[in-house]
Write a sequence for this structure.
């Protein structure tokens, strides 16, 4: 039962509800962890720490909530992990502009999709650039 | 030993000579502190994201150096603090440990050359763009003048019909 889980059965928003039947058209799943079916008959995948279990639960809850609201989830990829050659440099305000709002605030990784490590590097770079007046602390016209 | 980079913002009114003079003084201080200056990267004048001491532009220069005895950073920062023409500065530790001074020096010299080349190209391009802009401004003015003249003529013609 669980082994034949449809690709679109669980993750994603289920737009149109057409994911069942094993077709390749299912919406993209948030994490690719092999086939799965309903929760109850899932095979245990080795030991899981308490924290990891709690996190998984929270993720599941978030997915369900998003589904209810009609939103959809898409796996975001950290652009610096995807393209390892693009460096993060505080002397390059153009490259950093993408990670601040129009008013000059940092954009959270939950929106920009950065991984924790690169988000940290970006945040430091932006703060350094602000000190050197390459980026604004706040937009001149805001407030 | 460790490699550092110190970026500083110089007042826009300081001339090119004044800036090179400052760079040589920075190098002198570094050498006296037992550090090895590698290269200076002049990024030219940039618009500041916010005014500093009522200045809206600043010249960005980055100095790269190896700190051998561990006094280089303190000394360069002391100099920049005293220097009135410097609006801001920031020192950052470069990743990685440098073991071979001479090798790094050669690399830096090469980099300096490449950057100088690029700076020259940029300056040439900017001059060219500036020229183009001036040209376009002239064109615009000519067009505006022509348009105004045509409009006046058309209006005069219409008024002529009414009579």
């Amino acid at each position: 039962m669980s082994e034949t889980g449809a690709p679109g059965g669980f993750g994603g928003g289920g737009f149109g509800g057409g994911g069942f039947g094993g077709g390749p058209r299912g919406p993209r799943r948030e994490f690719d962890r092999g086939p799965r079916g309903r929760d109850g008959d899932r095979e245990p995948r080795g030991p899981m720490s308490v924290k990891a279990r709690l996190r998984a639960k929270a993720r599941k809850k978030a997915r369900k909530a998003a589904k209810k609201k009609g939103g959809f989830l898409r796996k975001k990829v950290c652009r610096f992990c995807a393209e390892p050659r693009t460096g993060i440099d505080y002397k390059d305000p153009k490259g950093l502009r993408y990670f601040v709002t129009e008013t000059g605030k940092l954009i959270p990784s939950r929106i920009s999709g950065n991984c924790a490590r690169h988000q940290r590097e970006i945040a430091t770079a932006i703060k350094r650039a602000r000190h050197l007046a390459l980026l604004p602390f706040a937009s001149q016209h805001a407030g | 030993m460790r490699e550092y980079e110190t970026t500083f913002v110089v007042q826009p009114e300081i001339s090119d000579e004044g800036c090179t003079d400052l760079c040589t003084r920075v190098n002198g201080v570094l050498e006296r502190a037992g550090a090895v200056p590698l290269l200076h990267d002049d990024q030219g004048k940039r618009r500041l994201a916010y005014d500093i001491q009522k200045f809206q532009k600043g010249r960005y220069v980055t100095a790269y150096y190896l700190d051998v005895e561990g006094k280089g950073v303190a000394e360069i920062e002391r100099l920049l603090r005293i220097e009135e023409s410097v609006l801001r500065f920031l020192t950052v530790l470069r990743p990685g440990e440098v073991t071979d001074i001479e090798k790094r020096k050669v690399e830096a010299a090469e980099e300096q050359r490449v950057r100088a080349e690029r700076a020259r190209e940029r300056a040439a391009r900017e001059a060219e763009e500036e020229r183009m802009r001036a040209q376009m401004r002239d064109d615009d003015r000519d067009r505006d003048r022509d348009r105004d003249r045509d409009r006046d003529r058309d209006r005069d013609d219409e008024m002529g019909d009414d009579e």
About this structure: Helices of chain B lie at 16-32, 72-82, 101-162. The mean pLDDT of chain B is 86.
